[in-house]
Here is the input.
Amino acid sequence: MSLQALQKRIGDAAGRGAALRLRGGGTKDFYGNAPRGEILDTRSYAGIVSYEPTELVVTARCGTLLSDLDAALAGHGQFLPFEPPHFGAEATFGGCIAAGLSGPRRASAGALRDYMLGAKLIDGRGRVLAFGGQVMKNVAGYDVSRLLAGSLGTLGLIAEASLKVLPRPPLELTLTLELPEERAIDALNRWAGQPLSISASAWHDGELHLRLSGAPPAVRAAAEKIGGEETQGQLLWSAIREQTAPFFGGPEPLWRIAVPPVTPPLGLAGKQLIEWGGGLRWLKSDATPNTVREAAQRAKGHATLFRAAARPAAVFAPLDPVLMRVHRDLKAAFDPAGIFNPGRLYAEM
Amino acid sequence: MVEALSLERIDIARQREVARALRAFLPERAVLWEEEDTRPYECDGLTAYRQVPMVVALPETEEQVQRVLQTCTAMGVPVVPRGAGTGLSGGALPPGDGVLLSMAKFMRILRVDSRARVAVVQPGVRNAAISEAAEPYGLYYAPDPSSQIACTIGGNVAENSGGVHCLKYGLTVHNVVRVRGFTMRGEPIELGSEAPDAPGYDLLALAIGSEGMLVVLTEVSVKLLPKPQCARVIMASFDDVGKAGQAVADVIAAGIIPAGLEMMDKAATRAVEEFVGAGYDLEAAAILLCESDGTPEEVEDEIARMKAVLERSGAARMTVSRDEAERLRFWSGRKAAFPAAGRISPDYYCMDGTIPRKRLGEMLHFIAQMERKYGLRCPNVFHAGDGNLHPLILFDANNADELHRTELFAAEVLEKCVEMGGTITGEHGVGVEKINQMCVQFQPDELEMFHAVKAAFDPARLLNPGKAVPTLARCAEYGRMRVRGGQLPHAELPRF
Here is the structure.
C-alpha cells in the first residue's frame, strides 16, 4: 500500500468514525488492552528508506521486518543498541516503535526512545506529519517523535521512523555467579557505579548472569574483577529477550514491574526474573493485580500486566487526573475522531 | 534572527495590580517592578533582543511557584520562566505585559544518591555544580554545554542542552530521568521516574527541549555516571576542510564512537589561540579534537585505532595529550571559542544548525561563499561528531547594514541546513531568534500540531507565549517578506 492509500484509508475511517486496529505482523497482539477495530495491516508499506553507516542513522518504513533491518545493520557491523524484542519472525519496525519495548541492553545503552531521531506520522485527519529528522541533535519543535515510542499506535500510524544505530561491541562474554536475590541487587547497583562494561544482567533462582561488552582489554579486565564463571551467553540473552526461556512458561500472568534499580526484593508471591541492573522485575504470579500494583507503587515504580491468558485488570498502571487529562488532550489533538487503537493504552482514550 | 523587537511599553496600572496580587503571598524582596530592579532581566544570552519585564517574581518554595502560576492564570498574565539567563535563542526574553519567573532561588541539591546513581536537584542548580557534588563518589553528570559553569539544569531541560561529549553520552533528554513541577494552571505534575520508565506517553521527552512552554519545573532527577578513569585527546591537523570532514565520517565508519569529536577551522583556531594559548596548529586549514575515555586499557586501544584512521584520512600532524593538564589545554581553546570571537569582533552571531555529518565539507565551502557574498568573516567551530555547527558571524551591531547582512547570512545558512536534511537548531533552541526559520523547516500542519501539544499542557497559552513555534500568520508574513526582498532562497522548498 502506498502512503497515499494509507492516508485515504485513515481519512475514510475518520469520516465514518470507525475504529482502526493498526497491526504489523501481529507479534505483539498480546500487549496492551484488548485490541479492537478494523485491522489496518501496515506490512505492505515496507522497506529501508535510507541507511548510511557513517551517519549512524537508519530510516525505514513501518512494515519493514525487524529481522530484515537487523540483517542490514549487521552487514555493516552495526545494530539497534536497545535490543528490541521481536516476539516472532513477523515483527515489524513500526510495531517495534509503537510498543516501545527495549531488551537486555536497556540499562547500559538506553531505551528505544533514546534512539528515536524522527518520524513520519499519519494523524487522525489523514495528514502526513514529519517530526524530528535524521540528525543526532535537533531541538526545533517539541520532540514528538520520541512521544510516539511506546504510544501503542494511539496517536497515529507511524509510517516511517529514523533511529540512531551504533557499532556492535567488538567482544561480548557472559559470566554466571551464584547469589541470592538481595545480594544480587546490591552487587548490580555497586557494579553499575563502576566502569565494568556490563551490558546486560539477569537474575533468577539464585543465579546471576552478566554480559560484558566492549573493547577486549576492558572486557577482560572487568571479567577478572567481577569473577564468576564464563558461560555460553548468546542463547541465554536472546531467550530472555524473546521470552522463550523456561521462566516465561506456565499459566500465571506475567507482570513487568519497573522500579528504581536499588529497590530491595519486592517480596511478592510467585517467581521472578530480574533484569536491567535491578530496574526491571519480571514476575510470574497469581497475586491479585492490586497487590502487585501497590508493591510497585510503594517502590516508586509501576507494574504492567504484560502477558495474561485473560486480562484480569487494566494492563497499564493508572495515571493521576492531571496526567490523564494531558493524555486525553494529546490524543484528541492527534486523533480527533478517536479511531486509532482505542482503549489499547487506557480505556479512557 | 529577526530584527530586534520594538520595546513594549509597560502598563503601569496593570503592573501595580499584578505586583499587588503577588505580594499577597511573596515577600517584598521577591517581587520586583521598579525599572532599576527589572532591567537586569531584560535579556538572556541573546542580547540583541531586550524587553524589560512588567514584573519579576522570585519565589523560593514550590508552594510560592504554584501560587504565582495560579494567580497569573486567574489574571490572564503571561509567565516566562528563567534560569541563569545564559540561553542563546531568547527563550527567556521577558514579556512586557507579564511576569518573569526567576527560578534563581531554587539552587539546592536535594539528594546525591551514589548507590542509585541519581541526583535530585532544584532547577536553579548550575550544571557544573551537579558534577562537583557527585565527584566524591566517583560519579558525574555527563552533558557539558560550554556554559556549564553558569547555566542551570532547569535551563538545560528547557533547551535539551548538549555539549562536547554528547555523541557518546547523549543530550539532556538521555540523562534526565524525572522532573517535577506545575502546569501553568498550578497543577502539580511529575514526568518520568527513577524507575526505567513511567506508564503512559513519554511526556518527559516532550517537556525536555520544550523551551519552558509546557511546564514549570521545581525539581529534576538526573542520572550520574561513573567518571571515566582516564581520557586522552588527539589533536589532528588537516590541510583541507573537506578532508577533515571526511575524517570524521571515517572514524565513525571504523566502529569508533569517540567521547568527543570537535572541529575548528583556521579562523577559529587563530582567534582562540591568541586568547587562551591552547597550542593549536595554526597552519592547519582545520583541526579535529578526537577524545577517548574509559579505563586505561580501553583508552590506549581506542587512541591507537583512532590515530590509524586519522592517518589514513590524511591528517598532516597529530598530537596526543600526554597528561590531564595538556588534555584540558586542548579543550580550553574549543570551550573558549565564543568569548574569543567576542574579543576579535565587537559582536558575533552564533548559529546552531545541524546537518548530516557527511556534508560538513560541503557546508564549510557554502559558508566561505557566504562570507564573500556578505563581506563578513565567519570562523567555524563544530560538534563534528553529531554534525552540529556553530559558525560565528563577526559583525558590529552599531553598523545597521552589517547587522542586516548578518541576518541574511544566518538565514541562508540555516535554510541550507534544512535543505541538507538537517535542522535549524541542534541545541540552542528556537526561542524568538529562529522563529521565522521554523516556517522553513515545518509545514503548517506540523506547526499547528505543535500548538495543539502546547494546548494540552497550557490551554490558555500563558506560559512563555510566542516563543519557539510561529503562528501560521507569522509564517505567511515571513514568506512574503523574503519574496519581496528578492531573497527567497530555495524556491523548490514546499511553502504555502
